[in-house]
Amino acid sequence: MYNVYPILLAVIFFNLSLSGQDTIQSAEEFQKELEEDYRNPEKSPLKQRAKDFKGHAFFAIDSTYRVRANFVRTLNALPFQMQTTTSRTPTYEKYGEATFEIHGEVMVLNIYQSHNLRETAEYKDYLFLPFNDATNGEETYAGGRFLDLEIPEGDTILIDFNKAYNPYCAYAKEYSCPIPPKENTLAVKILAGVKKPKK
Predict the structure, then answer these.
(1) How far apart are CA 159 and CA 149, in angstroms?
(2) What b/e string do you get for 158-197 counting C-beta neighbours within 10 Å, with b at 16 or more?
(3) Which of 44, 53, 59, 111 has the most crowded Cβ, counting Cβ within 10 A?
C-alpha cells in the first residue's frame, strides 16, 4: 500500500511555510508604507520635522503574533466617550470581542468602531483596536499601541500584531490620542510591531 504520510507532512510544511511567507510579506509592506508616510511632510505627524525622521524601530516579524481570532459581535452596544490624552472625547462603541491564543495563553480584546469614521465612505468598515501590554514603557511606547482592522464577514477576524503602531502622541505632544481602555490590557509581552520611538 502506498504510504501517503510523507506527502501529508510535505503539504502541512508547505502550508506553514506559506503562512509564514505571507506574514513576512504583509508586515514588510506595512513597515515600508509606515516609513514612507512618516517621511512625507504632507502625511507625517512630524510635519516640518519629517525630513529629520530616522525611521521606526520594529520587533522582528513573527508569525506567532498573527492570529485568526474568534469574533463575537456585540449586540445593542451603547456609545461611549473614549478618553484621550486631551479633553477631547470622541464617540465610539464596542463592536465586538476577539478571543485568541498566543503561546498557549487565551486572550480577549475588545474591538471598537468610531461613530465619526463610520459615516464616511472610506472608513465605514474600519474597526479600531487599541491595546496595552507588558512591553509598555520598556520596549514600546508607554501609552499603548493601535491596530487598524476591518469588519469581518464571518465569525473570525485576522489580528496581526506585527502591524501594531504607535499613536501620534508618541512622536509629538500636540496631538490628541485615544487611551486604550483598561479592559484592553494584556498581561503578556506582545513582541511584535513598532517599538517606542527612537530618541
Answers:
(1) 8
(2) ebbbbbbbbbbbbbeeeeebbbbbeebebeebbbbbbbbe
(3) 111
- Nearest in space to 63 (alpha carbons), one of 32, 107, 30, 102: 102
Sequential pLDDT tens for the chain (199 residues)? 444 444 333 433 434 444 677 889 999 999 999 999 999 888 898 888 888 888 999 999 999 999 999 999 999 999 999 999 999 999 999 999 999 999 999 999 999 999 999 999 999 999 999 999 999 999 999 999 999 999 999 999 999 999 999 999 999 889 999 999 999 999 999 999 999 997 6
| Of 149, 153, 140, 128, residue with least CA distance to 191 | 140
Residues 114, 16: Cα–Cα separation, whole Å: 35
* Rg from Cα positions in the chain: 19
Q: Distance (Å, rounded) from C-alpha 161 to C-alpha 5?
A: 34
Place of cell 478618553: 83
